[in-house]
């Protein structure tokens, strides 16, 4: 039992809980270890609130690092990160601007790094064609390698073979980066075709993927028509 406490994670000082990210509540938990075990059964549980007097266990889909604005004072509650299901993101609010937050691999600790706004190479070709793939392509001149900013190759765009979901454009950036900006555009030559909304996912191995969230919820970007013409 003591080993499970040691493996599970770290606690913030007593008297604080994470309220806005609770996904499940369970009564009848006389010991904190019971709450930890419940969190272990659910892969999306990243932290817990436990109230000794009530025997109440709350499972959270965020942590105080990913959503610090959700932390509130509580005279009876205890909070713990469940480190066996680590979060891969942390909120930039933890760091002083303009620095950004980057989680350590253990999912329990973070570091603040200087914000970098330089492009990674989708426009200038530093990201190679071999690093770009997609769920499907409409035809030979709509391949994912054409989905670069201001591309003039083929039709100058990537387009999927079907409008049915899910469809995705996948970029292998080889090593870990902090992504602070994403630029999109519509089809060139004033053709009214563009992605109207999208979300981002990231992975360390291209097998297990995690969606980017803001405030505990999936962040979906909506776009308006942006076109360009060849000079």
How are the SSEs ordered, and which strands pair?
Blueprint (H helix, E strand, L loop, with lengths): L1 H7 L7 E3 L3 E5 L5 H9 L6 E5 L4 E5 L10 E3 L3 E5 L18 E4 L6 E4 L18 E3 L34 E3 L25 E2 L2 E2 L7 E2 L1 E2 L2 E2 L2 E2 L9
Antiparallel strand pairs: 1-5, 2-4, 3-4, 3-6, 7-8, 9-10, 11-16, 12-13, 14-15
Protein name: F5/8 type C domain-containing protein
Organism: Exaiptasia diaphana (Tropical sea anemone)
InterPro entries: FA58C, Galactose-bd-like_sf
TL;DR of this structure?
The protein is mostly beta strands. It contains two helices and 16 strands.
Describe the structure.
The structure is a single chain. It is built from two helices and 16 strands. It has 231 residues and is mainly beta. It has a four-stranded antiparallel beta sheet with strand order 2-4-3-6, covered by helices on one side. Residues 1-7 and 227-231 have low confidence and may be disordered. This is F5/8 type C domain-containing protein. It comes from Exaiptasia diaphana (Tropical sea anemone). Residues 116-231 form the F5/8 type C domain. Pfam families: F5_F8_type_C.
- Shape assignment: elongated
SS summary, helix count: 2
Outline the low-pLDDT stretches. Answer: 1-7, 227-231
Q: In what range is the share of β-strand residues?
A: 15-25%
Strand element count: 16
Radius of gyration: 22 Å
Q: Mean pLDDT, as a whole number?
A: 84
Helix content: under 10%
Listing every helix as H and every strand as E from the N terminus to the C terminus, the arrangement reads HEEHEEEEEEEEEEEEEE
Pfam families: F5_F8_type_C (PF00754)
Organism: Exaiptasia diaphana
Domain F5/8 type C: 116-231
Protein name: F5/8 type C domain-containing protein
């Amino acid at each position: 039992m003591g080993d499970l406490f040691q493996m599970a994670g770290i606690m913030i000082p007593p008297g604080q809980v994470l309220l806005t990210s609770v996904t499940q509540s369970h009564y009848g938990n006389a010991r904190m270890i019971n709450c930890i075990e419940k969190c272990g059964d659910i892969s999306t549980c990243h932290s817990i609130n436990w109230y000794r007097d009530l025997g109440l266990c709350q499972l959270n889909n965020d942590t105080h690092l990913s959503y610090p604005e959700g932390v509130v004072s509580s005279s009876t509650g205890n909070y713990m990160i469940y480190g066996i299901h680590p979060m891969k993101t942390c909120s930039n609010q933890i760091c002083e601007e303009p620095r950004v937050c980057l989680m350590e691999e253990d999912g329990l600790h973070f570091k603040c790094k200087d914000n970098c706004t330089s492009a990674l190479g989708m426009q200038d070709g530093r990201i190679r064609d071999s690093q770009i793939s997609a769920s499907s392509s409409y035809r030979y001149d709509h391949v994912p390698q054409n989905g670069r900013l201001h591309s003039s190759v083929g039709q100058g765009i990537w387009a999927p073979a079907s409008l049915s979901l899910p469809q995705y454009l996948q970029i292998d950036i080889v090593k870990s980066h902090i992504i602070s900006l994403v630029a999109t555009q519509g089809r060139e030559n004033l053709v009214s075709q563009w992605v109207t909304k999208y979300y981002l996912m990231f992975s360390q191995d291209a097998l297990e993927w995690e969606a980017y969230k803001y405030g505990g919820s999936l962040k979906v970007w909506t776009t308006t028509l942006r076109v360009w013409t060849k000079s």
